[in-house]
Amino acid sequence: MTSDARPGPDSVDIVVLVSGSGTLLQALIDACADPAYGVRIVAVGADRACVGIERAERAGIPTFVCRLSDFETRQEWDAALASHLEAAHSRLVVTAGFMRLLGVRSLGERTVVNTHPALLPSFPGAHGVRDALAYGVKVTGSTCHLVDGGVDTGPIIEQRTVVVADNDTEQTLHERIKVLERQMLVDNVGRMARDGFTVEGRAVRLGPR
């Protein structure tokens, strides 16, 4: 299944940013194969060569790689990333396992959606699953949220939970979180595209105002 399966006339164009294996991206690619989903992936970008880029290429989606190491400063990298996003003419960006913080230029006036493998505001950052397990929580999960200038600090769109088993390791717990994380991302990006959304303070409401 690929994303070039005749999107509907009112499909919303999105850009997806990845850094790794691209399983979240693949969930979106599969969803976009249904014209009723209302979303078309017009570009996939990465900060490094990765399997996610290969998935996009197999699906016939334009790709770009913007490496931080190719620039003298983070600000220059962020400006270059912003140029790629502008070229895609999309106001909705999804960071699907993208391991870089977006700066002022790349955020711009865009709506950026991310998922995090913990129940924010608890356990932000790159090791959310490990930190939750080490803390001894009995319930964790995933958060779908808007991206702002901080580390996993943007307004929350939705959260889904996973019960922590006594014998869980970081890997087994993360695998269960990933299953619901993929579906939550697909559900929320689709609803935002089809039905719209509003943000009032930290409250995100999907659907018509």
Q: DSSP helix count?
A: 6
* CATH arch. level architecture of the largest domain: 3-Layer(aba) Sandwich
Main sheet overview: 7 strands, mixed
CATH class of the largest domain: Alpha Beta
Q: What would you give as the CATH superfamily of the largest domain? A: Formyl transferase, N-terminal domain
Our count of domains comes out at: 2
Kindly report how far apart the N and C termini lie.
Answer: 34 Å
Give the overall pLDDT as a whole number. 94
Secondary structure elements and pairings:
Blueprint: E1 12-18, H1 23-32, E2 39-46, H2 51-58, E3 63-65, H3 74-87, E4 92-95, H4 104-107, E5 111-116, H5 128-135, E6 139-146, E7 156-163, H6 170-195, E8 197-200, E9 203-206
Parallel strand pairs: 1-2, 1-4, 2-3, 4-5
Antiparallel strand pairs: 5-6, 6-7, 8-9
